[in-house]
TrEMBL record:
Family the entry assigns: Belongs to the acetokinase family.
Site entry (Transition state stabilizer), positions: H179, R240
Residues binding ATP: K14, H207, L208, G209, N210, G211, D283, F284, R285, G331, I332, G333, E334, N335
Subunit details: Homodimer.
Organism whose genome encodes this protein: Mediterraneibacter gnavus (strain CC55_001C)
Residues binding Mg(2+): N7, E385
Protein's name according to its UniProt entry: Acetate kinase
GO molecular function: acetate kinase activity; ATP binding; magnesium ion binding
Keyword flag Cell inner membrane: no
Gene3D superfamilies: 3.30.420.40
GO biological process, one term: acetate metabolic process
Length: 399
């Protein structure tokens, strides 16, 4: 069954066409600058990457161009829309309403829309993508796969904040967590590498990218995660500050004469390793080069990032009363050997014997980075959220 996986942003649309049974990627690409001018990048499996400028006033035109590319007689990978049997949509926030993926209905769309104020930049864009696909493929089943769903197994002691309870009752202010599709996919693969049943494992997944989060997966269920009501909480990230004293917001507002929106812009867009490095970059490749060249701010930025990851790992070892394995994934986790080594340098107390030689230069390859006698295993496992979405879609459509 061919499944079209859609990840829709406010002005972009990433896509992959996957044979969900063989798990082969048939084609992939991205539509960018939607609503501005429009640019399509398309690559069939084994073929050359194609780039073209196309007017995309809305996401409907973007989806249309995607379909035209996929069915192109020369470089397409299917003959007609009939060969696309389902569409899987990444949905960022399902609130408490969705603890698993669902087939999209009018009721589901309404429930997602009710979560818009929890993810104002993402949910409306996700729904626009659904509407665009429904307009062009009205008879094709659509599935919503939520970033937050995997974390709905957290107990109240993990997701409640120390705020008046009425704010939870009225406004659902609580920890939700994100990157759930990735944490689920990677933790399942880790269980396979351990040779243990998924429901008998204690795994800590470090999804480290421009947006980063750490999750404690106990017996196949998320029991705590570092992101909160929004993706701003938790680790220091590319441009996000992560955990801070909330009084800093008031302090900066007075010092800089800013309103709430102005302070939030600083915390979301101007902070993280970008801010710590003095505005040098949010890209760890740039920070690594600068750090090796002696740039003190870049060095501090990387050290703060790794230190915060190690702190969360320590906390989650306590939460689960032990750990079997620690997994690095996503752009930084899979590709940055310096960050992996820095993080693991704090974890000797766990009995981790880290293979520094094997770690050097390792990029994007599934690998065990712990020595044979290590009490706790360390893995690099490349994430594949698109494949996870395709698997969920296949399962639901078959039902």
């Amino acid at each position: 069954m061919n499944v079209l996986v859609i990840n829709c942003g406010s002005s972009s649309l990433k896509f992959q066409l996957i044979n969900a049974e063989s798990e082969e990627v048939l084609a992939k690409g991205i539509c960018e600058r939607i609503g501005i001018d429009g640019r399509l990048t398309y690559q069939p499996e084994g073929g050359e990457k194609e780039k073209s400028e196309k007017a995309m006033p809305t996401h409907t035109e973007a989806i249309q161009f995607v379909i035209e590319a996929l069915t192109n007689p020369e470089t397409g990978v299917v003959n007609s829309l009939d060969e696309i049997r389902a569409v899987g949509h990444r949905m960022v926030h399902g609130g408490e309403k969705f603890a698993s993926s669902v087939v999209i209905t009018d009721e589901v769309k309404k429930a997602v829309e009710e979560c818009n104020d929890l993810a104002p930049l993402h949910n409306p864009a996700n729904l626009i993508g659904v509407a665009a696909c429904e307009n062009l493929m009205p008879n094709t089943p659509m599935v919503a796969v939520f970033d937050t769903a995997f974390h709905q197994t957290m107990p109240p002691k993990a997701y409640m904040y120390g705020l008046p309870y009425e704010y939870y009752e009225k406004y659902k202010v609580r920890r939700y967590g994100f990157h759930g599709t990735s944490h689920s996919f990677v933790s399942k693969r880790a269980a396979e590498l351990l040779g243990k049943a998924y429901d008998e494992t204690k795994t800590i997944v470090c999804h480290l990218g421009n947006g980063s989060s750490v999750t404690a997966v106990l017996n196949g269920k998320s029991v705590d995660t570092s992101m909160g009501l929004t993706p701003l909480e938790g680790l220091v990230m590319g441009t996000r500050c992560g955990d801070i004293d909330p009084a800093i917001m008031e302090f900066l507002a007075h010092k800089l004469d800013l309103d709430v929106d102005g302070v939030m812009k600083i915390l979301n867009k101007d902070s993280g390793v970008y801010g710590l490095s003095g505005g040098l970059s949010s890209d760890f490749r740039d920070l690594t080069d600068a750090s090796l060249a002696g740039d003190k701010k870049a060095q501090i930025a990387m050290e703060v990032f790794s230190y915060r990851v190690a702190k969360y790992i320590g906390a989650y070892v306590a939460v689960m009363n032990g750990v079997d394995d620690i997994v690095f994934t996503a752009g930084i986790g899979e590709n940055d050997d310096i960050v992996r080594e820095q993080v693991c340098s704090y974890l000797g107390y766990l009995g981790i014997e880290f293979n520094t030689e094997l770690n050097k230069g390792l990029r994007g390859k599934e690998t065990e980075l712990s020595m044979p006698g290590s009490k706790v295993k360390v893995f690099v496992i490349p994430t594949n959220e698109e494949l996870a979405i395709a698997r969920e879609t296949l399962e639901l459509v078959r039902k």
